[in-house]
Amino acid sequence: MRKPKSLLQNRPGKTELIRGLRTSGNAVCFAMVVAVGTALTPGSGWTKAAPRLNIAFVVADSADPFYLTMKCGAMKAAAEMNVDLSWQGSTSVDYAPEISILHAVELKKPQGIVLAPFSPTAFIAPVKALMDAGTAVVTVDGNLAQKVELQNIHTDNAGAGASAADMLGEALHGEGTVGVITFQPGIPVEIARVNGFVDEMHKRFPHVKVLATQYGGADAGKSATITSGLLASHPDIAGIYATDTNDAEGAASAVRAAGDAAKVKVVAYDAAPEEVKALRSGLFSALVAQEPYQEGYRAVELLAKYLRHEITKEEIPYLYQTGDVVVTKANVDSPTVAHTILYESTCS
Amino acid sequence: MDPNTASSQSEPRRPAAITARDVRKRYGHVEALRGASLSVGLGEIVALVGDNGAGKSTLMKVMCGAVSPDAGKVVLGDNEVVEAGRFNAAEQGVGVVYQDLALAPHLSVLENVYLGHETLSAGRPRWLGLLDRRTMAVETQAALQRLGIRLPTVQVPVSLLSGGQRQAVAIARAVKWARRIVLLDEPTASLGTRQSDIVMNLVHNVAEQGLGVLLISHDMERLARVADRIVVMRRGAIVAEFLARSATLAQIVEAMLGGASQLTHPRAGTSAA
Amino acid sequence: MNSGAISDLTDQDQNDSLVLPANWRPRTAGPALSIFAVDVAVVLIFSLLSGFVFLAPQSLSNIALDGSESVLLCIGSAFLLGAGEIDISIGANVILSSVVGGKTMAALGSPLTASLIGACACILCGAAVGAFNALVVIRLRVTSFITTLASLGIVTGIAYVLTNGYNVSNVPLGLQSDFGVAKLGDLLPYPALIALAFALAAWFVLSHTRFGLHTLALGSSREAAVRAGIDVHSRLMALFMLAGGAAGVSGFIDLSRYASTNLSGHQTDALAAIAGAVIGGTNLFGGRISIGGAVFGALLAVILQDGLVVVGLAAFYQLIAVGIVLIAAVSVREFAQSGDSTVPFSSRLMALLYGHAPTKAHAPVGNWRV
Known about the structure:
A: Rossmann fold; Rossmann fold; 2 domains; six-stranded parallel beta sheet; 11 helices; 13 strands; 44% helix; disordered N terminus; B: Rossmann fold; six-stranded mixed beta sheet; four-stranded antiparallel beta sheet
């Protein structure tokens, strides 16, 4: 920038005046830019009080409406808490690619990570390493066999299974045969949903016969075939409990195809859009909905507060359980249920 | 004609490379071989001719141990009787080149020639199977040269060679490991004129090396110029034997067909008219 | 006739369609170099797009570690493909081997010996599955495609039966911390070193031993191999056990990295292994194997997966991107390999850039085997 000429040296002619104005104008502009820039950079006192945070959210099976709903909740929290949220998910339920994604995400050095672990053991070492290195980790939906993360947020799956048992047992008036279809063996979350259901059924409705668990592999076609088989081999079957969306859809379609929609009550886990439609049309008797929106929201909210030192580690309980809501035709259109419980593929 | 007397009267007796005696073979209702007997001497080129279905390939397969006959004997050398159909041609020094050549297209010339007979590095444990490629390359080049074949390199995959070159490699491979005789099934069937000439020259060179050659072919003209004896088969039996230098085409065809040629409308002035 | 007058075949064949010029030289490292170049190019692109985060040592370690299992399976597949066979049960084999190894380790006590014995159990189980495949192919004469399709289901089922559906996870922790995720000199992950050692051994066997030659012969022309007196049955048994053993080692690495089996995973392992081998230059129908190509082909998939995440591309776009890059990679390799290696690559590149057709590609010698 040129040194401003003294305006008093000569009689200021027109050109000198203009030049002078221009120079001082430059100086003022420059100062304004510096001032605003300083004001806008994070850490300055002029922007919101909270510094912008960098949080990564890692899931598997990212096309599932459950996780898309969780993403909506997380993004809402990110917007409210001034967080840069980066979302990375694999496309299958295999935990190995998810671990690779976690390692890749680490390279960008986020301050916090929310993780939906698809294995209770395989993620222990990476999460422990992250926590030791100073990156805060919150797990959602699944849980780790060792409590190495900051907090674990998940639905009380056993409790939700029990809700389903209550619902179905009452609908059957305590008598009859029910079938159970779940995703795959070895998934702790699914195991909890099944065991919660079976235990509650045996406890409260001992005369209801629960058939052996079938594995639909989250493949609607396969679970439809399984359900048809159950309907054929157990003509007295009066209820089916499916622990995930795809298996529930398969079961419902088989029930409808057999013309048994009135006789066989299907209770499904989760409230994905297709399931809600089936509920409205009477195919499902009830849906046991989780609260993925809440899980996503609370995870990001907690991390943001922790990273800004608004709460300390000691104040954070290890486990935070979100609840379940039994959705029936009666309450499916009520405002609370419709806006916060039902899963959505896009955020409203 | 008695196969044995024909050769003994007009040629010096060669030691026999391989002899088939009274071989019979039946496939279902079809009698492929009806008591065929054939002898080939060391350094002799015998051509086996006949119409389709005469049993030429079957006889050759019996003589190389690929097919087990219902009756008959195969004798190697002068007196070594082997269990026909059960003997291993490679072990007995009988080289065979089938019509499909059985070359591995992706493998190089040297690898094809040495497949199954690889030279291993001296001084290393044999179980490792370390190849001595340098020695094999030199030897392959030498084997080709002995037959009059020159290739710029033996490292080229055989799929890049022309039909004639491939035939030459197949013959060179058979010759390298053969100790008595090489059997060739239709070596010029898919080749052009010039390449057929080259391959027939090769056949001659093989015999010059002291091996017997049994050759199935439809190429009468070249057979007449290369072979020592021409053996004619019809319907599973040997029906005629000629010395190549004294046989005429008409004689051979008549023996093959069992009568005159069926070719109608021969042009006036040709030998068939 | 005078043998001295025998023609020089090369000269006389001048007018034939496939003429072998005198300056023909074998190009053996071709496919591997092409795919290596593609790998490097992709790494550089991702590095630029990610602000060089992708080139960090940590990132390269990740790639090596993520690729170790895939490299093992690609090499095993390459050997089988080269012999004209295929193994689509290789992913299930990894699972079963890890289950058998994991259960063995859980049953034993102290970490070190348990790990070593567990490793042996993994490899033996893998080889046993391979032997089973070989027996069905050899004795029952079922093609390897159908055989391994069936054993895929059988082996997966056995794994589930053995574990009752629950992943085996009481694996000695030292195995993970000191081996599975540990690095030599903080840079080279141990599983990657194992994969590298396996690759070097495989390359040596392929190019310098009789076994390697016979493998190629089996795939190039099974008929020629039989006529040459090769013991086809024992070679096939060895090859299937080799691929099975590779799967066993991969299962051990899997167990070490995650301290757990992965019953529901490995779904696409077999396909990825075959793809990696074929992208790297191994002929799908037999006769040609490239170990270097298999290694770099395996790494390409890993580089893509890791890179797309680092760059921040959403998961669904990643699938599209991977497909496009695979086509591009194979096209690059095919172009580099076309022309019988008689015309230098630079000339062909020039010809392509200036609009002439490249010189005639060599006639494909297929070996259709179903």
